[in-house]
Amino acid sequence: MSELMKYPRIMKRAQGEVREVYDQKQQANETGIKEMKYLKLVIQETLRLHPVVPLLLPRECGERCEIDGYEIPVKTKVIVNAWAIGRDPNYWTEPETFYPERFLDSSFDYQGTNF
Fold it and tell me: What residue stretch is flagged as signal peptide (predicted)?
C-alpha cells in the first residue's frame, strides 16, 4: 500500500482496472482476477521490493560445489537473501524504483500456490 501511495499514477491505474472488471456494482469474486493484468504486475513488483520472507529458509549443501570462485563444502548451510536479489542492479534496471511495467514483457511468471 505504501508504494501505491507514493505512486498515485500506478494506484489510479490499478483501481481503474479493478473497477472496470467488477463494473463498480458486482461483488468482488475470483472470476475477475485473471482479467486484472495490471494488478498482477503491481503484485509482482511489490513482492520484488518487499518479499514476504526476505531471507529464504536455510538449505544444506548436499555436495561440494563452487560458485563464482567460492568453494561451498558439503553440509554448509546456505541462506538466500531474496530482499537483496530483488534490489540487485545487476538484474534490475533502477532497482529501487517501483515500476510494475518492468514485468510486462518479462519471461518471469510467478505461479505461486493456491491454498
Answer: none
For the stretch 48-68, pLDDT in tens is: 999 999 998 899 999 999 999
Q: Write out the DSSP string of 13-40.
A: HHHHHHHHHHTTTSPP-GGGGGG-HHHH
Average pLDDT over the chain reads 89
At position 40, the amino acid (one-letter code) is K
Q: Is 92 exposed, middle or buried, given 0-12, 13-18 or 19+ CB atoms closer than 10 A?
A: middle
Hey, which residues does 57 pair with through a beta bridge?
none
Enumerate the domain spans of the chain: 1-50, 52-92
Q: Which helix (H) or strand (E) holds 65?
A: strand 65-67
Beta carbons of 18 and 39 less than 8 angstroms apart: yes
Element (H, E) at 72: strand 70-72
